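Annotated sample (chain length 167).
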Amino acid sequence: MKTVEHLNNERIETIIRKCDVCFIGVVDGDKPYVLPMNFGFKDNVIYLHSAPEGRIIDILNKNKNICVTFSTDHELAFQHPEVACSYRMKCKSVIAWGKVKFQDDFERKEEALNIIMEQYSEKKFKYSGPAIRNVKIWEVPIDNVTCKEFGAPHEKYRGDDTVKRSH
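Output written by the structure step:
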């Protein structure tokens, strides 16, 4: 088993779409702060929503930098059942960095809520005016992204030029 870094945007999006939660990381002064969140993804932008006020909003008002992590397909694997160091978690992950932009435009907020809900349901939703006005919408255009598959079979990506191999 090896670690493979995916460079193909379609593979990256496939991994993101398989997730039901992402983890956002920010820095509060000199301390990290990480939260699980629901999300939407479209055109290289991650969409998040929250209450209009709170600790996370206070932190982001001081520092808009954010790291968003997605992880899926978790499976415990080992090379030998009696050797603890041979155990590892096979999985696929995407880590994205960007700067949060808060969206205040009513129509754009409604569009963002639809993008978020499309991650979880094929149902079409309608939102009341107060619901849209009272939600904080975050847009995170991705500045940088990495995508790795941990525990990939050696033969799976032989000859595939959309991956970077490492051991």
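Annotation: The chain has a mean pLDDT of 87.
Annotation: Residues 5 and 148 are 4 Å apart (CA to CA).
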